[in-house]
Amino acid sequence: MSRSAELYARSSAVTPGGVSSPVRRYEPNPVFIESGSGCRMTDADGREYIDLCMAYGPLVTGHAHPKVMDAVREQLSKGTVYGAPSETELKLIERISKEVPCADMVRLSNSGTEATMHAIRVARGFTGRDNIVKMNGGFHGAHDAALVQAGSGSNAGVPSSKGVLADTAKHTHTVEYNDAQALSDLLEKDDDIACVIMEPVLGNVGVVPPKDGYLWDVRRITKEHDVVLIFDEVITGFRVSSGGAQKKYGVTPDMTTMAKIIGGGFPAGAFMGRRDIMENVAPQGPVYVAGTFAGNPVSAAAGLAQIDVMCSDGNYATLDRRSDRLVRSIRDTMADAGVRGCVNSVGSMFCIFYGIDEVTNATQATQTDRAMGDRLFRYMLEHGVYVPPSALEDDFLSIAHTDEDVAQLEEAFKGFFSEVKE
Ligand SMILES: *Cc1c(COP(=O)(O)O)cnc(C)c1O
């Protein structure tokens, strides 16, 4: 029995499904990770992997980047959490405010889930309206207002998890991503909508980029109806550019949520936006949000160091160039092998969809041939590459993936597709 299998047996006895978050489980058992360094992880049985999952997004500078580790060590020597403000968290807030176009003011939290939960509350408090709109396939963390899927007939949503009240879900409406007309029709019909919350690039059904002009249309439509536009940039923030997707595409929302990269490998989140909206947040305003660990200096030091690294030495350009090279190689390899599918990418986030020629929304994304995704995962795991275990998760590159690592990845994908062809 492998060490991972042993650990999983122990784990399954004491935590549901043997994992701390559902996506981490797969058959017969997930590999348990012992350590990570750069673009590589080593499991409990001593097997090494090139990591293409990168903890689902946070590690844009790789595992244990020396500058991030130094910043953390320095902070640790001064304590871990104070329950009072510190200059470390202020520096992160100032940095985010400087880089992100919509961020007149920023409030830190502990996770993306908290950030979106708070942002939605702020939008409701600011507008005095009850309903919210999300995109089909959009993910905004695991809280009640966000664990909702499209209902049949009316726009009112239904719970996507047991334990979420139908009474809560009915306030969350869902429209298809990349369909500006559907959003316009919905806002025309319902004058009790506080906000539209959306990933500017869908990133939780694989990667689905916005069509030309779509984000502009969403901006115009929400403005016409005085609805708060929230970009959930938990994945795209400090990944697709230093100012997130809003800077890349030149569309400024009213509010934004971030997490993942801004914690530098530690738990962190943030919501931010226009001054007149953010002034509603307690203690300045009447919308209550709070957190013992919000803005904790260890996460802030790590996040700030990671952002500093990314914003220097042309690192975004390097990252995008290497990612483009890998994506083009995978496309060519698939075509050569005669495997039907498409590879969607935005910078360093990408996803392979099998058995479908184009994916522009979540409905198409879920038509992907998941069995092929599963086969890829297993092949890669055996051949020393750790891709996300689910077909509808994103692959992520980091600046720790060198040109040689990318070449090694290209070979691994070639190996898989030649096996599939036979
Ligand atoms: C990961 C994610 C979240 C949730 O963030 P957590 O830190 O896991 O709570 C929210 N929104 C998006 C777009 C995400 O990808």
What does this structure look like?
Helix 2 (66-76) runs antiparallel to helix 10, helix 6 packs parallel to helix 7 (214-224) and helix 11 (315-337) runs parallel beside helix 14 (403-421). The chain starts with a helix and ends with a helix. A hairpin with a 2-residue loop joins strand 13 (341-346) and strand 14. Helix content is 38%, strand content 16%. It has 14 helices and 16 strands. Strands 4-12-11-10-9-5-8 form a seven-stranded mixed beta sheet, sandwiched between helices. The chain has a four-stranded mixed beta sheet with strand order 1-2-3-15. It is globular, with a radius of gyration of 21 Å. It has 422 residues and is α/β, with parallel strands linked by helices. Pyridoxal-5'-phosphate is lined by residues 111-113, 116, 139-141, 199, 203-204, 232, 234-235, 259, 269.
In short:
With 422 residues, the protein is of the alpha/beta class. Helices cover 38% and strands 16% of the residues.
Instruction: Supply the CATH superfamily name of the largest domain.
Output: Type I PLP-dependent aspartate aminotransferase-like (Major domain)
Instruction: Specify the helix fraction band.
Output: 25-40%
Query: Which spans have pLDDT < 50 for at least 5 consecutive residues?
Result: none
- The CATH topology name of the largest domain reads Aspartate Aminotransferase, domain 2
Heteromolecules bound: pyridoxal-5'-phosphate
**What's the count of strands?**
16
Number of helices: 14
- Strand proportion: 15-25%
How do the strands and helices of this protein lay out in sequence?
Layout: H1 3-14, E1 33-37, E2 40-43, E3 48-51, H2 66-76, H3 87-99, E4 105-109, H4 112-127, E5 131-135, E6 148-149, E7 158-159, H5 166-169, E8 172-175, H6 180-189, E9 193-198, H7 214-224, E10 228-232, H8 244-249, E11 255-258, E12 269-273, H9 275-278, H10 297-310, H11 315-337, E13 341-346, E14 349-354, H12 362-365, H13 370-382, E15 385-386, E16 395-396, H14 403-421
Parallel strand pairs: 3-15, 5-8, 5-9, 9-10, 10-11
Antiparallel strand pairs: 1-2, 2-3, 4-12, 6-7, 11-12, 13-14, 14-16
Helix pairs in contact: 2-10, 3-10, 6-7, 11-14
Pyridoxal-5'-phosphate is lined by residues 111-113, 116, 139-141, 199, 203-204, 232, 234-235, 259, 269.
